[in-house]
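Researcher: If only I could read backbone structure tokens as easily as an amino acid sequence. Walk me, if you will, through where the backbone shape changes along the chain. I have put the entry right below:
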Amino acid sequence: MKRGSGAAGTAGRTTPTVRFRHNSGIAVAGLIAFFGAVPVATVRWYLVPILLVPVAVAVWGWRAGTDADESGVTVHALFGARRLPWSRISGFAPRGRRVVAVLDGGATVPLTAVTPADLPRLVAASGAEIKAQ
């Protein structure tokens, strides 16, 4: 997992942003599949949309993930991102090999690329105690 730096709410103090991402091999596999699909897609004009599938896989593999810092959690998808402030998150729940954020209203949001083993790092990014469910 990569670490960056983000601005904290206090002046002159920065806290690390904890980033959770899938293996970069997914993006590389998408690019390889793209080049492998080019000969098939160029045979007929109506086969060109076949190239969109490996491109979407490559972009998703590069972009999808979860970032956590002192102000909240950002879940990135293929298109767009959703910001969840810590005040809306009441806890986390493992669901198999994945983790979901349980919101104050009871709704859940899947946290892309976060596994149950990553929960201590995710909670530590908040700077507060959040009980894992």
